[in-house]
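User: Here's a chain of 128 residues. Predict its fold as tokens.
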Amino acid sequence: MKKSYLYYALPVVIVFLFSMAFRPVNASVSVNPAVGNQELPDSVLKVVQKACMDCHANDGNGMAKSHVNFSVWNTYDVKKQADKAIDISKVLSKSSMPPGKWRKNNPDKVPTPAEIEMIRNWAKALNK
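Assistant: Prediction complete.
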């Protein structure tokens, strides 16, 4: 008799665990990219919205948002934000972000050299 309960309980537990692991993200999370108690400078925010958030936000690419998710940027602690800013600066400087296919399909959204330099300066300032 105990085995029959196990046969019914095990699938329920498995379904419950999967539903918890793959539950939808709370849609009420606002995009508030702030560093510590300071918001991103308007110039940085403008570039992030233009060139990054298609993929690096809650409704973006799963792999991309696992590296940095601007929808939850304000939940990162100050150290993590500073580290992510340096990483962002590096990938922009190497032209490895945004990816080549995205660049080809969105040439008007690709960060300019001046925007990349501005992001580099911002990232350096966060890490002082």
